[in-house]
């Protein structure tokens, strides 16, 4: 009898054979990145692991929907092995049980035939057991694949999604607050490798903001081990803020700030070959995220801006932040942005913003990339 780990995926199975094989290989590569001493092999719909497996790491690998520790035997050995396996896993102390069968390959029997046969075997071995298919005390999973057989009694859920990296790379604008790390995580789950970016506004943000953003990104490292925060300092807003105040246009500060951040992120994305920008914006949450203002922001970048939280309310986002572990760091103490005006505009006009930028010479101030 040999102990192995059975890794299950979901969406990969729906892809064409060439894509499925490619994505399976990416998933295996991601597993080996965090557990390099493990040996992996794959069959259609399944990945098998041997070696020093760390379940807590498997839970956080995108693309894995669930996994089980299994005992691998030959199909001809099952009647001999089954009673001892079930005794070791507590079936002798249970009152009810169920057998869950899966079968791959050509056989002279059906899955239901074997479920009945092995169920009767266990009832003879453990007279205390009764069948309860709806809510049993214990479940025995038997997976027959041609002449091989795999036994397991537990299924551990994992993070799911698509293997990290199959969709390419995105730049995530990270503030350190609750929303942006959740947005980055959601795009990771859809197969995007994330490069987090913090645009440090000189005179308006300080080291406490940067430190909080770093701590949040460190939490995300359990889902993407190579993730690292890039901090880019920018003095543009310090110049723009003075001119906006002098011209009694301070209410547009947040719009000017966000448009600048988009431009910096786009330049950084082009430098790295990333395919877009991720933000934590959702409709109506703050002044810069009204439909009018989002339209003004959209015009800034020539590459896609992804907003996975666009229809979420704060409670929904907070729930995910708690689940993935970023919430506590996101609410840790940090200075507030000193650039936020009293009474920010919620209905900016694109032509007016363009005109103000021209007067302020926004295009003449080089990007810090």
Number of domains: 2
Low-confidence stretches: none
Distance between the termini: 58 Å
Text of the CATH class of the largest domain:
Alpha Beta
Going by CATH, the homologous superfamily of the largest domain would be: HUPs
User: The biggest beta sheet, please?
Assistant: 9 strands, mixed
The secondary-structure class comes to alpha/beta
Tally of separate helices: 12
Highlighted features:
VC0802-like; 369 residues; Rossmann fold; 14 strands; 12 helices; 9-stranded mixed beta sheet; single chain; 5-stranded parallel beta sheet; alpha/beta
Chain-wise SSE layout:
Layout: E1 2-8, H1 17-34, E2 39-43, E3 46-50, H2 55-58, E4 66-74, H3 78-88, E5 96-104, H4 111-125, E6 130-131, E7 138-145, E8 148-152, E9 156-157, E10 168-173, H5 179-189, E11 192-201, H6 207-220, E12 230-234, H7 236-246, H8 253-272, E13 277-278, H9 291-298, E14 305-306, H10 314-324, H11 327-330, H12 350-360
Parallel strand pairs: 5-6, 5-7, 10-11, 10-13, 11-12, 13-14
Antiparallel strand pairs: 1-3, 1-4, 2-3, 4-8, 4-9, 7-8
């Amino acid at each position: 009898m040999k102990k192995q780990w059975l890794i299950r995926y979901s969406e990969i199975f729906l892809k064409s054979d060439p894509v499925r094989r490619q994505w399976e290989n990416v998933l295996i590569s991601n597993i080996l990145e965090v557990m390099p001493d493990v040996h992996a092999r794959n069959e259609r719909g399944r990945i098998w692991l041997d070696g020093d497996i760390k379940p807590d790491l498997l839970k956080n690998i995108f693309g894995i929907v669930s996994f089980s520790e299994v005992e691998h035997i030959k199909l001809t050995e099952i009647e001999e092995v089954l009673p001892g396996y079930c005794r070791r896993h507590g079936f002798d102390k249970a009152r009810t049980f169920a057998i869950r069968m899966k079968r791959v390959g050509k056989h002279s029997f059906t899955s239901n035939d074997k479920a009945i046969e092995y169920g009767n075997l266990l009832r003879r071995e453990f007279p205390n057991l009764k069948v309860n298919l709806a809510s049993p005390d214990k479940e025995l999973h038997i997976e027959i694949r041609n002449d091989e057989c795999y036994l397991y009694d537990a299924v551990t859920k994992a993070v799911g999604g698509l293997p990290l990296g199959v969709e390419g790379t995105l730049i995530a604008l990270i503030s350190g607050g609750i929303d942006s790390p959740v947005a980055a995580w959601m795009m990771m789950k859809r197969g995007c490798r994330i490069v987090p970016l913090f645009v440090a506004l000189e005179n308006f943000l300080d080291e406490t903001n940067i430190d909080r953003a770093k701590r949040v990104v460190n939490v995300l490292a359990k889902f993407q081990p190579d993730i690292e925060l890039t901090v880019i300092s920018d003095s543009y807003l310090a110049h723009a803020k003075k001119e906006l105040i002098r011209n009694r246009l301070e209410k547009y500060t947040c719009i000017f700030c966000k448009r600048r951040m988009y431009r910096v992120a786009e330049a950084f994305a082009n430098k790295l070959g990333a395919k877009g920008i991720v933000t934590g914006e959702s409709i109506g949450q703050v002044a810069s995220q009204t439909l009018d203002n989002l339209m003004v922001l959209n015009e800034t970048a020539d590459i896609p801006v992804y907003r996975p939280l666009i229809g979420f309310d704060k409670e929904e986002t907070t729930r995910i932040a708690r689940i993935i572990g970023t919430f506590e760091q996101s609410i840790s103490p940090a200075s507030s942005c000193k650039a936020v005006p009293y009474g920010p505009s919620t209905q900016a006009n694109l032509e007016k913003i363009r005109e103000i930028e021209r007067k302020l010479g926004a295009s003449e101030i080089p990007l810090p990339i």
